[in-house]
Amino acid sequence: MDQRDDRKQVMILTSDAGSGHRSVAEAIEAAFAENYGDRCVPVIVNPLRVAGSPAFLKLIAEEHYDDLVRKDPALYELSYRLSDSIATAAIIDQVVAVLLHDTLRGLIEEYRPDVVVSTHPIYIEPLNFVCDRSDRTIPLVSVITDLVTVHTLWFNPRVHLCLVPTRQAYKKALRNGVPADRIHVTGIPVHPRFAAETRSQPELRAELGLLPDLPAVLIVGGTRVRKVGEIADLIDRAGLPIQLVIITGGDHALYHALTARRWYTPTYIYGFVDNMPAMIRASDVVVSKAGGLITSETLACGRPLIFCSAIPGQETGNVKYVTSAGAADWAPKPPLVLQHLTRWLENDCALLRQRTANAAHLGNPRSAYLAADLVWELVTSEPVPVQPEPTLRTAALFPLMAGVQVTRMFDRLEQDLRNVTDSEMARLATWCINRIETPTDLERVSRAIHERRQRLSPAQR
Q: Residue 308 pLDDT more than 60?
């Protein structure tokens, strides 16, 4: 960008770890283009894929993330929970701030943004680091893409806006030091297409070639969604008065397997689609994993869900949030999907109608517009410098020795926990670690666990 015009430059940072972060970025970009197109220039950038960005960081944050989620979800849950603390977030912030400093500085010099919006948690503190070293003030916005079980890395006290999806996330932002006047509940931003799609279900079914009178069950698959074929087979053979619509996404093997078999129920199979608002609104029930984005998109269309899987730790809160509102049911095993679906269709679909009404109440199809409006209000007002009281979370602003000291204490804590088989102690240790906020807290917890280990018998250690 060699020339500067009077339009506001909105830089939206994202990641390609899964599809949710980029989809949220695209939703915000589209809302800006629609409402402020002649006054701003929104641009989406993935810093991890910029030339010169550390290759191993991309490997860890994107490729290894996907592999771990698919192949070893239990290990992912353990790493997620043990890293979900203020102390650990401070250490991660410091490391990533150093690794991404040159990349982010280059992006700021290239795009000269009036505001930076982040749809991934690892960029905010590194951006603070760049701005502090260059004596700049650029408004920073964090847009959270998980509904309830939100990792501590998302919450940085120095952001100018923290856009959260739920009241539960709002409360955690407060606990992590984000000032209340900077936190806004917007929902997860879904693409403006979801608000624009207002055609009736009969119109949509006619366009898609679906049967007009049978309830439509939409199964949303993908490379992270397991047992889609088994779920579809059980429903197909149950003889229910329904039609099946299956989206396999990037799971090409599943697509070929499903299109090659014989179906007893009217069934329509798709790979990738670009008309999700129409697909969801044409359906009556959505069966999917409990991802934050697909959940928000489905609720934005006023449709209930049957959750067939969830990433441990990260997505389990989504399940609880939507099921407790009466807009979904949890079915971690394929037979349970069929069981819930059968219940929903009983008594002339009485439970399905109730679930649908609850989903419509919970959804927010205009969430991207709300996010864009809040960012626009920020960027067109005088930015207020954010200077919180020094805490462990802001340790990246101080000499590296502070981080080294904290890291050494964590090393000792890890040694104390290694090979412990006392499940009660392990749960207690995890609980304590997630409440560490200062080096003093860390030292106290480490000492307490060490003393507890000394009292264990050799067989328990």
A: yes
User: Which residue(s) pair with 330 in the sheet?
Assistant: 307
Closest residue by Cα to residue 369 from 116, 191, 238: 191
Domains of the chain in start order, with CATH, are: 8-190+367-387 (3.40.50.2000), 195-362 (3.40.50.2000), 400-455 (no CATH)
CA 461 to chain centre: 37
Q: Structure pTM? A: 0.80
Residue 413 tokens, joined: 């804590």
Q: What DSSP element (H or E) covers 34?
A: helix 20-36
Find residue 269's DSSP bridge partners.
Answer: 246
Closest alpha carbon to 138 in 163, 113, 156: 113
Residue 209: the pLDDT is 96
DSSP 259-287: HHS--SS-EEEESS-S-HHHHHHH-SEEE
**What is the DSSP code string of 367-427?**
HHHHHHHHHHHHHTSPPPP--PPP-GGGGGGS-HHHHHHHHHHHHHHHHHHTT---HHHHH
Q: At 179, is the secondary structure helix, strand, or coil? A: coil
* Residues facing 118 on adjacent strands: 13, 142
- pLDDT classification of 191: cutoffs 50, 70, 90: very high
What is the rounded distance in angstroms from the CA atom of residue 252 to the CA atom of residue 103?
A: 35
H helix intervals, 313-366: 316-324, 334-362
User: Which of helix, strand or coil describes residue 69?
Assistant: helix
Q: Which residues contact 203 (CB under 8 A, 6 or more apart)?
A: none
Query: Tokens 């609720």 correspond to what residue?
Result: 299
- pLDDT digit string (tens) for 312-342? 777 889 999 999 999 999 999 999 999 999 9
d(C-alpha 144, C-alpha 172), whole Å: 12
Cα separation, 221 vs 187, in Å, equals 23
Both tokens assigned to 286 = 């959505």
Q: Which helix (H) or strand (E) holds 439?
A: helix 439-455
- The CB density around residue 354, as the number of other CB atoms within 10 Å, is 14
Q: What is the DSSP letter of 290?
A: -
* CB-based contacts of 176, cutoff 8 Å, min separation 6: 86, 152, 155, 157, 393
Cα pseudo-dihedral 303, 306, 309, 312, rounded to 10: 70
